[in-house]
Amino acid sequence: MEDYGKHILSIDGRKKLMLQGVQHVGSFDEQEITLDTNMGFLQLKGEGMHITHLNLDDGNLVVEGIINGLEYVEGKSAKGARARGKGLINRLLK
Questions:
Q1: What domains appear along the chain, each with residue ranges and CATH number?
Q2: Per the UniProt record, which residue ranges are transmembrane (predicted)?
């Protein structure tokens, strides 16, 4: 297996998710967060989710809320996920 760098995902009681290896956050709201990681595209689903810590220089992310599921998706990028209209600009212009 290739070495992709540090990639650690930890979930504490389905209420707090900690992830190392984040490269880009595509879109986020209380029900879904899309990310590019060093292991591929990652989609988080839940309720009341908020990003409480993000440091792209170190690749660290902390999400708090109810985590219902997560899925790694091959051949997809969080940069392309903005087309769904959940980007920061679209939410600000509501």
A1: 8-92 (2.60.40.2000)
A2: none
